[in-house]
Amino acid sequence: MKVFFYGKLADAIGRHLDVSIETPCSVAGLRRHLVAIYPVIAEDLQDSRVKALVGETFVADDHKLGPRDEVEFLAPVSGG
Fold first, then answer.
1. Residue 80 has pLDDT above 70, yes or no
2. Beta 57-59 vs 51-54: how paired, if at all?
3. Percent of the chain beyond pLDDT 70?
C-alpha cells in the first residue's frame, strides 16, 4: 500500500512509504502500524486534525483499506 505524508509528517519520515500491512484494515489500524514503526510521528499522526484521504476522498478512521489503496495523511498547517 502506498502512503503519502504532508506537513510535519513528511518532514519527520519523508513524503512517501510503501507499507506492507494485512488487509483489510482500517485507517486507524494503519495509523497504529505506522506509529509502531515510526514512533517519532506518534503525537502528530494520532492528532485528530490529521486527515486521511483515500483517492481524492476524505475518509474516517473506521474506513476499510484495500491492498491497492493509496492513503494520504494531511497534517494541519499554520501560516499567515
1. no
2. antiparallel
3. 96
- Cell, residue 29: 489500524
**Pairing of β 51-54 and β 16-18:** unpaired
Q: Which amino acid is at 76?
A: P
Residue 49 CA to residue 46 CA, distance in Å, equals: 8
CA 19, CA 33: separation in Å to the nearest integer?
A: 9
Instruction: Taking residues 18-44, report their average pLDDT.
Output: 94
Q: Among 75, 69, 45, 44, which Cα is nearest to 57's? A: 69
* Neighbouring-strand partners of residue 70: 2
Contact 64, 1 (CB under 8 A): no
Q: Give the mean pLDDT of 40-48.
A: 94
**Run of H or E including 19:** none
